[in-house]
Amino acid sequence: MVPISRGLFADLLAQGEIFQSRDILRPTYTPSKLPHREEQINNLASILVPALRGETPSNVLIYGKTGTGKTAVAKYVGKELEEASFEDMKCVVIYINCEVVDTQYRILAHLARHFDRDIPMTGWPTDQVYAEFRNALDEEKQVVVIMLDEVDKLVRKGDDVLYNLSRVNSDLLRSRVSIIGISNDLKFTEFLDPRVKSSLGEDEIIFPPYDAEQIREILEQRANVAFCSGSLQESVIPLCAAFAAQEHGDARRALDLLRISGELAERARSTVVTEVHVRQARDKIEQDRVEEVIKTLPTQSKLVLYSIILLEEQGTRNITTSAVYNMYKQLCPLVETDFLTHRRITDLIAELDMLGILHTIVISKGRYGRTKEITLSVYSGKLKSILQQDYRLKDLTNVTVPQQARLGL
DNA sequence: AATCCACAGGAAGATTAGGATA
DNA sequence: TATCCTAATCTTCCTGTGGATT
Length: 409
Known about the structure:
It is a single chain. The chain has helices at residues 2-14, 38-48, 70-84, 104-114, 126-138, 151-155, 160-167, 194-200, 212-226, 236-246, 251-267, 275-295, 299-313, 321-334, 342-354, 380-388, 401-407, and strands spanning 60-64, 90-97, 142-149, 176-183, 203-207, 319-320, 358-364, 370-376. It has three domains: 38-207, 3-Layer(aba) Sandwich (Rossmann fold); 210-294, Helicase, Ruva Protein, domain 3; 297-407, Arc Repressor Mutant, subunit A. The longest helix has 21 residues, at 275-295. Strands 2-3-4-1-5 form a five-stranded parallel beta sheet, sandwiched between helices. It has 409 residues and is α/β, with parallel strands linked by helices. 50% of the residues lie in helices and 12% in strands. It binds a DNA duplex (22 and 22 nucleotides) through residues 157-158, 298, 320-322, 340-344, 346-347, 350, 362-372.
């Protein structure tokens, strides 16, 4: 047993010549230098300086698409601020991801706990938690910066927290609070209470997406540390950057792509990461994405997709909405489901198209009407097996194509 | 040029699900 | 726990349309 495992891992370990420090490529890592974000960093820093003088900084809203460095910049500036604060003028930065901590109660509890208050997971009235937090805050003179990442997630279900937090200063004697909201939805303030909107959006910072060149520099900076020297083919980074720039300048994706390319190269026992690995990695990411999307599809959409797969297997050419609908209507009783109307199926197909699982075009056959022709943009066998993992669809597993052809009236 | 197929897709109302609130 | 509210889902009804056929 021991010799086997030693051999097994020794083998794999011997190949560890690609990565020097893989974690640097993970999205959770906050680098000490953020290229092409100097402007935003300075901006945010100058908004927050008053904190060091004991004054209240403006509240800030930070906007930008995913992977534009919002969180990294905010955390970085926050860290610097804490380090720069003096003994007699304490600055505290509290970071909260609202996607994880997503209710008024949890946020207040989280904040209170940060000041070593004991708050039970559940049970207390919300205003008691609020009072506890406020008291803890006011115990000593300090400026507290609360960073709310993904605030838009919070707004969807009531903006009471934001309202309460933006007003907390008037309840405080010694301390001051300022809020930094981070959102990837540019229009989310539209759903805010106007009072909250004006107090939260005293200042705004926009994070534009990176272009290919900027992503390249970011990748290079990290790759220098993350990879062993010479283990990257020259064209690898530009290629990753180009792919990511196509996908709306998301640096996180670019880093994922680079990391997965490296992992694939490692697994393939290659000592160098090549373009081939990058392309493989891109395909793998895409495949994982599709798999994830399909798994979380509502049952009706899965049935529609299944119908299309069956039609394709059956060799039907020019799959139209009606063909899909007929097939779908036959499948529904097999899984004991009510069937939806034609109109709705049209919408579901449009949604699948949006998700990039299907490809549809409207074609006109003149006298013989107008239809939407549907083609799968993913390999159907793979799709089928993913769909069959759904227990609600298990009765379809044995549905054979010829039988369907016979039923198709 | 007029016709007309077979469906796309908009509008609006109905239903449902989930979540808050009393 | 009942009830109320809202957003999402779904239906009904409808108008619009590209181009082969007449």
